[in-house]
Amino acid sequence: MKIKEIISVLEEMAPLAYAEDFDNVGLLVGNNEDEATGALICHDALESVIDEAIEKKCNLVVCFHPILFSGIKKITGKNYVERSILKAIKNDIAIFAVHTALDNHQEGVNKIFCNALGLQNTKILVPKQNFIQKLVTYTIPDNAEEVRNALFNAGAGRIGNYEDCSFNSKGIGTYMGNENSNPEIGERFEFVQGEEIKIEVTFEKHLQSKILKALLTSHVYEEVAYEIYDIQNTHQNIGLGMIGELSSEMNEIEFLKMVKEKMECGVIRHTNFLNKPIKKVAVLGGSGSFAINNAIQVGADAYLTADLKYHNFYEAENKILLADIGHFESERYIKNHIVDYLMKKIPNFAFVLSQINTNPVKYI
């Protein structure tokens, strides 16, 4: 099996197009044409993890956080990033990162977070914007079903929990071909007027080339008329953070004790208790200060995230229990999820769960 075959499965789990613009996901080091000897799944691709991959004969390291994040101009081994990259290159080890591609997936980081706490009725906290496009095309009635099905099979027409969504309307189309045309209906220089079906579907914008290929191969016309629009709708099934509900209310102290146990937190920093029961809980794995107001707006009783600064705690405005449970802690079950997913998809391959705890934060 080549590394690229494993990567294709990883991209099914966490499509790279779901990642945030600032992020650096995908294959960071190595050649995807190499034969895979084994894959080590980790949280951070540190030098110690690369050593573990060498020991366990894995030439692919799948990490959550990208070891290469910002620009790098030299690789001299002067810091932990460069040392990891150097060791990986010297030992022909590829590194693949998923990060916010998995953060934004509805079954990804924050769903894992919710599951660990037993939250139910989960929804995306911050739905992704500027991610949906709309295709409008026209064809004869006899061709409409074939075109629609081709578009659906390419990924168009998915809205929330529904598939094969489209809007179809009848109208009259006209055209006249020139001397270079080869019309399916009518002749060159003949004015043709006939019934057409207008088909409208939405799709995730990263699927555009696939959608257009499906349209052009299924359509009967020599020249296919179509339009593509960017639309303002948020994508309710893709985005950062989640909101869910506990099966029963808990008081604030009981709730935080439960979180500390389930997420194995060394410590939890939190705002003043409001003496209100906790039922509706918002979560965002990793750095989530930017979504405090989102959690308040959706009516969450508590918001769990990480990397909060001093002044972020004031933003709770006595409206919500705000808790920083630790960056690593909020993401601690991700590598287990990746291993489980890969083993189900490719059961006869060596996927190894890293045994190294890469959390750089310690507590006393």
Automatic annotation (TrEMBL):
Pfam family, one: DUF34_NIF3
UniProt GO cellular component terms: cytoplasm
Keyword terms: Metal-binding
Family note: Belongs to the GTP cyclohydrolase I type 2/NIF3 family.
Quaternary assembly: Homohexamer.
Entry protein name: GTP cyclohydrolase 1 type 2 homolog
Superkingdom of source: Bacteria
List of residues binding a divalent metal cation: H65, D103, H327, E331
InterPro entries reported in the protein's UniProt record: DUF34/NIF3 (IPR002678), DUF34/NIF3_bac (IPR017221), DUF34/NIF3_sf (IPR036069), N-reg_PII/ATP_PRibTrfase_C (IPR015867)
Sample GO molecular function, one term: metal ion binding
Keyword flag Plastid: no
